[in-house]
Amino acid sequence: MSEADAARPARRGAFALIRIALAALVLIAVAIALAKNWSAVADHLGEVSVSAWVLALAFGIASPALSMLGWRALLADLGSPLHVAPASGVFLVGQLGKYLPGSVWSVLAQAEIAARLDVPRRRTGVVGLVTMALALLCGALVGLPAVPALLGRGGGDALPLIGIAVVLLLGALWPPLLNRAIATGLRLLRREPLEHDFSGRAIVAAAAWTTVAWLSTGAIVWAFARDIRGLTGSGGEVALVSISGFCLAAAIGMASILLPAGVGVREGILVLLLVGVMTTPAATAVVVLARFVTVIADVLWAGIGWGWARAHHLLPEHMSSRT
């Protein structure tokens, strides 16, 4: 073993510790900020109606399932069609990996589980990474209308740049360009190329499912925001900032690969956006409730997927403890 090979595990361990430290610092900062404003935030938490909770939970539960359908479309296009049940067992269990520091744990977990269904690990890995890229692109695309709100009064000057960004993002989703980027990435990683390119139909289907999933998650924020005291904006402004603003904040959070699930980044940007249409305590309360619902939805779906996968002996031993 060369010195470089021997040093690689140490570098990975140090990088993991840095990620954990960053995540801890962000969580501490968020906790301190929340504690300072807790009395005002708590007042708003008690205002949310049952109907708002029902709407938010419905949107929250729908979003992971929609994302899974996009992932499933890409996997089928490469030659591994899965029924919705096993696809859920693979995708939704693996999704919990996004809460760990780093960006690829969910992909690794999905590849390990899918291997029990005779899906090549490399194929699942590529689909997982492409799904993450599509999520980032589609989230940024849906979030672009909220950019002027984030920039404040001078946001109108950014409209030409937003138009350019829309063209670039749509161009990145163009099948020939996306396939070339995937082939280049595999070559740089010294991996074998795919058996064939992704079809345009599969990319469009995956992008469509992913976009609807983003809209569904953003609607969680809207369900709470419209039901809370302290609004200073119109209904249309609240809807735009809630839905498009959430997508923008979450896409930026996804790009912050050092932090698990964009923790702290998403919340901070979303509060900045929401204070344009509501008071700061109200915005903070909405963000806290939205994060709670998304985590609950992820855990609920992961539990269902884990139960199915365990019953069908798809889980590795370390993920399936038997009493």
Automatic annotation (TrEMBL):
Keywords carried by this UniProt record: Cell membrane, Membrane, Transmembrane, Transmembrane helix
Membrane topology field: Multi-pass membrane protein
Source superkingdom: Bacteria
Subcellular location, record wording: Cell membrane
Residue stretches spanning the membrane: 16-38, 50-71, 126-146, 158-177, 198-225, 237-259, 271-293
Keyword Transferase: no
Protein name: Lysylphosphatidylglycerol synthase transmembrane domain-containing protein
Species of origin: Nostocoides vanveenii
